[in-house]
Write a structure and sequence with these properties.
Blueprint lengths: L1 H20 L10 H22 L5 H22 L1 H14 L6 H24 L6 H16 L17 H12 L4 H26 L2 H12 L2 H7 L5 H20 L4 H15 L5 H29 L7 H4 L3 H6 L1 H23 L15 H13 L12 H15 L7 H18 L5 H19 L10 H16 L2 H25 L18 H11 L3 H10 L5 E4 L12 E4 L8 H7 L5 H10 L4 E5 L2 H5 L2 H5 E7 L2 E6 L14
Parallel strand pairs: 1-2, 1-3
Antiparallel strand pairs: 3-5, 4-5
Helix pairs in contact: 1-2, 1-3, 2-7, 2-8, 5-8, 5-9, 5-22, 6-7, 7-8, 8-9, 8-10, 8-11, 8-21, 9-21, 11-12, 11-13, 12-13, 12-16, 13-20, 19-20, 19-21, 20-21
Length: 657
């Protein structure tokens, strides 16, 4: 049944995206589907977001809308689009190289490698294992919203106030399948496939089929892409929309300067910043890259025109015009800003700070959110490791970290992309490829990206630029090699090395190191096997079965610990934990304004009726435990409490927040 829900989910997304980008002659048969699916998923995620604002998260609504929507779309497609789709498939097959060419056999070989890699990742994704961020907040926040039938404010919770567009897709999935954690993981796998597909489109359109095939294979075999494809994370969603935004900006600059192309690119960047706050940086970088590259291409055009007044210029070169960009600036800026305002506005209403959890000292932020953000930023040192050194000691520490950072050039960290960028630049200068428009755009992008590579707080924020850099590198390699045989030999060696690393990390090496628990030996597609795995590997899974027996439909459970079973709890939850910060009860206990009665009143105001925590609650809360809590059960180091004399109260704040 989960497979049918997943297919219906994708059908609706593809159709919505096709209506958004349909009828545009710019897209070919190979890139139209991935653009349509990506845009459709982004639009559908924001429809779910709007449903949450009006408190309409109900299982019957999600299931009914999905069944009706998918049914009507399938009916419409079979009547109107079947002939056109089949014609496009035949055209794509006809464009494939003939058997006699070497590149054809290279394509066949890489296709086998890609299918193998997808199979390995599917086998890992079709298991209940998760990375810590997934159960800590990506899935937990989605589950909390569903339990409360809409989006609501969660004080002392850091992660519910990020931009949450990917989590809206998880809300949709969990609304269809309440325990569909593995289906949420498949959403990430779909985005990985789309990112790889988009990499092929980049190489195919701006260089050649061979460059597209090699680049997509290397992106597929990157360890971190595979890692995030097998867990319910958000980094691949973010990476895809960053890459799609640059792709559409390149199309505008190099092929067709019409407003709707800029608008689609801006919308893609809007979906990126709706997935992660660093999307703002990438959008600014995308706008700057577009302006500078168009200006450089226009300068090259004018120089070429002066040298050869009567020479016929290439159509691609003629397309870049800075004047067109000025006239279409509204399409460049408005879509991304409008999407961003949906999330900045939510964060402003809830926390007082549109860019929470950052800038809490500069922007007035409500105390219950400011305390959590400051505690998080102090403990999570990765966000301060790239701060510019101000003293000799800081300079020494910065130098040591850079030295440590540069030791490994195999994985997808920033050092690898800087290396690739330098190689592409070297090949471009030696071969004088920098006069080509596609090279100009990508090299300008790389120049702007160097600062992000060197100062990025986390390497996973960079995955969206990796396809562009790898396409630039292999476009340069192909031009420099000059012959198909030499290019195929170089690509084959690199692909085999990457395949070895992919196999070692994503299959043989992922046993308990990065996963929540030891992965099973194969996919788990039967509910009985999944439940057996939970009971065997998840130490607190018994609470998932026990808690619903003592809580009513209107009760709310505050969970103050990072337990992996949290997204599985079938009750309304108030998630509070973060691995890098204290929980709500600790903050309240330390605040002089809150005695035991004030803490009780505060929890009553939030509607909380039960608390699930570990044994150290007494040490944190003083007499609050004796006066206001009743122990319901103690098991395996966890305790379930009920608030004494908890009357049914009306919350003070009406609406979603």
């Amino acid at each position: 049944m989960a497979i049918l829900w997943g297919i219906s989910f994708l059908i609706i997304a593809v159709y919505v995206g096709a209506r958004l980008v349909g009828g545009r002659r710019l897209f070919a048969a190979y890139d139209a589907p991935v653009v349509a699916l990506g845009m459709g998923l982004g639009v559908c995620a924001h429809l779910v977001y709007l449903l949450g604002l009006v408190q309409l998260y109900y299982e019957w609504l999600f299931r009914g809308a999905t069944i009706i929507g998918a049914g009507l779309i399938v009916l419409a497609m079979t009547r109107r689009y079947d002939a056109r789709v089949l014609k496009q498939v035949r055209e794509m097959w006809g464009r494939l190289p003939r058997v006699r060419t070497l590149i054809f056999w290279c394509i066949i070989g890489t296709a086998v490698i890609l299918l193998f890699a997808v199979g390995v990742l599917f086998a890992i994704a079709a298991t209940p294992t998760m990375l810590i961020d997934s159960y800590m907040y990506h899935l937990t926040v989605a589950k909390a919203y569903l339990g409360h039938h809409g989006i609501f404010a969660i004080p002392y919770n850091l992660c519910s106030n990020y931009p949450l567009m990917p989590q809206m897709l998880y809300v949709w999935v969990l609304g269809l399948i309440p325990d569909g954690i593995m289906v949420c993981k498949m959403v990430s796998l779909v985005y990985m496939i789309m990112l790889v597909w988009l990499t092929y489109c980049l190489g195919r359109r701006f260089f050649s089929v061979a460059v597209g095939v090699v680049a997509m294979t290397l992106v597929m075999l990157t360890r971190d892409v595979g890692q995030f494809a097998t867990t319910a994370h958000v980094d691949l969603q973010f990476a895809f929309y960053v890459c799609l935004g640059f792709y559409l900006f390149m199309l505008w600059a190099l092929q067709k300067p019409e407003p709707w192309v800029l608008g689609l690119g801006s919308l893609a960047f809007g979906f990126a910043l709706a997935s992660k706050l660093p999307g703002v940086v990438y959008f600014v970088m995308g706008v700057l890259t577009l302006i500078v590259s168009v200006w450089i291409i226009d300068c090259l055009n004018r120089g070429e025109a002066r040298r050869e007044k009567n020479a016929e210029k290439d159509e691609v070169v003629r397309r870049a015009r800075l004047g067109d960009l000025r006239h279409q600036a509204v399409f460049l800026l408005v879509p991304a800003v409008m999407v961003g305002m949906l999330w900045w506005g939510k964060s402003t209403v809830v926390t007082g700070n549109p860019f929470y959890p950052f800038f809490t000292n500069s922007i007035p932020t409500r105390v219950e959110y400011k305390q959590m953000a400051q505690d998080f930023l102090e403990k999570d040192q990765v966000y301060g490791r790239f701060a510019m050194p101000r003293t000799l000691q800081e300079l020494k520490e910065f130098g040591n970290y850079v030295q440590e950072y540069l030791r490994n050039v195999y994985y997808l960290e920033a050092n690898r992309m800087v290396l690739f960028m330098c190689l592409a630049l070297l090949l471009g200068i030696v071969g004088r490829f920098y006069r080509e428009p596609a090279m100009v755009f990508l090299l300008v992008l790389g120049a702007f990206a160097v600062g992000i590579f060197l100062r990025s707080p986390a390497w996973r924020f960079l995955i969206g630029l990796y396809p562009l850099i790898i396409v630039l590198l292999w476009g340069s390699v192909q031009k420099f090699a000059g012959r198909q045989g030499m290019f195929a030999l170089i690509a084959g060696i690199v692909i085999l090395l990457s395949l070895n690393g992919f196999w070692t990390y994503n299959y043989a090496g992922r046993v308990g190191e990065d996963s929540l628990a030891v992965p099973p030996h194969g996919p788990m597609l039967v509910r009985k096997a999944i439940v057996g795995y939970y009971e065997r590997e998840f130490s607190q899974y018994e609470w998932v079965k026990y808690v619903p027996t003592v809580m009513g439909k209107s009760d709310v459970l505050l969970v103050t610990e990072n337990i992996p079973e949290l997204p599985l709890l079938p009750v309304a939850i108030f998630p509070n934990p973060h691995m890098h910060s204290k929980d709500m009860l600790e903050f309240l206990a330390e605040d002089r304004a809150y005695g035991s009665d004030e803490i009780f009143a505060y929890l009553r105001k939030l509607g909380i009726t039960h608390i699930l925590t570990r044994n150290r609650l007494e040490a944190r809360l003083g007499d609050f435990r004796e006066r206001h809590l009743e122990l319901v059960r103690e098991h395996k180091g966890m305790r379930l409490f009920a608030l004494r004399s908890f009357p049914k109260l009306q919350l003070e704040n009406e609406g979603p927040f």
